[in-house]
Amino acid sequence: MEKVSVIMPCYNDGEYITDAVASVFGQSYTNIELIVIDDGSDDPKTVSILEELEKQGNVKLLHTERLRPAGARNAGIEIATGKYILPVDADDLIEPCYIERAVQVMEEKENIGIVYCRADLFGEKSGPWELPEYSLRSMLLDNVIFVTALFRKEDWESVGGFRTNMEHGMEDYDFWLSLLELGREVEQLPETLFHYRIKPRSRTTKFQESAAVVQETYRNIYLQHPRLYEKYKDEYAIILRDALIEQLFLNRAYQESLGILERLRKNPFLKYWIKKFILK
C-alpha cells in the first residue's frame, strides 16, 4: 500500500481545522501521513489548536512565515514521504473513501496523473459545486479541477511545484496545466467526496471583485504555458470564439429582459407588484 501525504496549509483557521483533520484520519485508506503547515498564524486560538495537534504525535507540523497557499503547500510537499500527494485546505472536508478510491485509479492506470471527484459547497452557500465536466477543451479555457486532487510527488518535482509568483491565486490551475504538459491525463470519480467551505470573505471572493485582476491572472497563466497553448492553438481559438458568442447572446437576452421589465413598470396596474416582489 503506497503512502499518501496529505498537505494542509493553515493560516488562522483554528475554527475549522479540527474537523478537517478528523476527515483525513477518518479515511478507509490507512497509509497516510498528514503534514499541517502553520503559515504564520497569529490567532491565539489557532496557535493553541495547532500545538495540541502536534502533541498527538500523528501530525507533522511545519512552521512557515506567510508563504501563502502555494508556498506553504510546496514546503509541506518538500518534506512529504508519500508517493502520492493530496492537498486539503484547513477549512474543507473529505469523505472517508476519497483517498482509497483515488489511489486505486492511480495504481490501475499509469497514464492518469490527476484524480479528483465531484464536490459540494457548505458554509455561506450549500449545494452541488456545479463545475463543468473535465475535458482538455474546458481546461484550456478555465480551471475545472479544485486543488484537493491526488497527484504524484514525482510529477510535482518534474514541474517545479506550485508557482509562487501568482499573487491573486489560481496557482492550482497553473499547476494542473503543467501536469497536462507532462502528458498526464485526468480522471474524475463520479461520487461527491469533497466538501468545499464557502466563507464570507476569501482569496476567491477578492479575486472575483476586479476584472483587471482576473484578466491579468489568466493572461499570465496563458503566457506561462506556451507549449501547451501552441500545441492546441487552433482548438483554443475555436473555444474562445464559442465562449464569446455565448456571452454575446447571454448579454442580448439580459438586455431584452431589462427592456421588457421597463415596459412592464410603465403599466400602472403592474407597477406596484413589480416594485414589491421583483425590485425589492
UniProtKB/TrEMBL annotation:
Organism listed in the record: Pseudoflavonifractor hominis
Pfam families: Glycos_transf_2 (PF00535)
UniProt lineage: Bacteria, Bacillati, Bacillota, Clostridia, Eubacteriales
InterPro entries documented for this protein: Glyco_trans_2-like, Glycosyltransf_2, Nucleotide-diphossugar_trans
Domain Glycosyltransferase 2-like stretches: 5-131
PANTHER family: GLYCOSYLTRANSFERASE, GLYCOSYLTRANSFERASE 2-LIKE DOMAIN-CONTAINING PROTEIN
Domain of life of the native organism: Bacteria
Protein name, per record: Glycosyltransferase family 2 protein
